[in-house]
Design goal:
The protein is mainly alpha-helical. The chain contains ten helices and no strands. It starts with a helix and ends with a helix.
């Protein structure tokens, strides 16, 4: 029983560390947040923190990975109750807009310096591409997305646009939420049928 209690405590502490650290990284930027700051925020010793995460880079990687998994699970849960593909898009848009509103642009600029994290994110995006294709096929079948487009090209154009935004750090010149809203407005409308656009107008407004 004692061992189980210790294990449960470590799991709970690990979860608290990841949640608190990621919130601090997003709010203040990665560079300005020290391991001391995270330990103080959690009211634990720095030694305890280092026993679980040997350095800041390891902690950051786990924060990004866990954050990515949680976001994916939230969308999967939302999709179970959504009526159609357009509602899933709107749910994703609202979730991202809320999340982006809590992130300092420095976070993105500094994140790009960590090669292992960027490799993980690129790999995750590649895995999600097959799910995106299945999602689009379903939207075509239900009359929301245009039939006959090469969606491999559409998805790659979207990825290229996002890569350009990140590599050129447009988020330092424009509001990140405004970038995301315009990105979605142009990309999603481009492959929506009149039926799909009518549903989107409730979110984006008419052009």
């Amino acid at each position: 029983m004692q061992n189980n209690n210790v294990t449960d405590y470590k799991k709970e502490l690990r979860h608290k560390i990841l949640s608190t650290a990621m919130e601090m990284f997003k709010k203040h930027g990665i560079r300005s947040v020290k391991m001391d700051d995270i330990a103080n925020a959690l009211q634990i010793s720095k030694r305890t923190l280092y026993e679980i995460y040997e350095n800041k880079e390891t902690l950051l990687f786990e924060c990004v990975r866990e954050d990515h998994i949680r976001a994916r699970e939230r969308m999967q849960q939302y999709a179970l109750s959504a009526e159609n593909e357009m509602d899933i898009i709107i749910g994703f848009f609202n979730m991202k807009m809320k999340d982006l509103g809590q992130i300092d642009p420095k976070f993105f600029a500094e994140l790009h310096k960590y090669t292992n994290i960027m490799t993980f994110l690129r790999s995750s995006h590649e895995e999600e591409r097959s799910h995106a294709k299945a999602f689009i096929e379903s939207g075509v079948e239900h009359g929301y997305f245009v039939e006959g487009l090469n969606y491999d090209i559409v998805l790659k154009l979207g990825e290229a646009s996002m890569n350009y935004i990140m590599e050129n750090k447009l988020y330092l010149r424009y509001e990140i939420q405004d970038i995301f809203r315009n990105f979605c407005l142009v990309l999603v409308r481009g492959f929506c049928t009149p039926k799909g656009i009518e549903r989107l107008n409730g979110l984006f407004g008419k052009p």
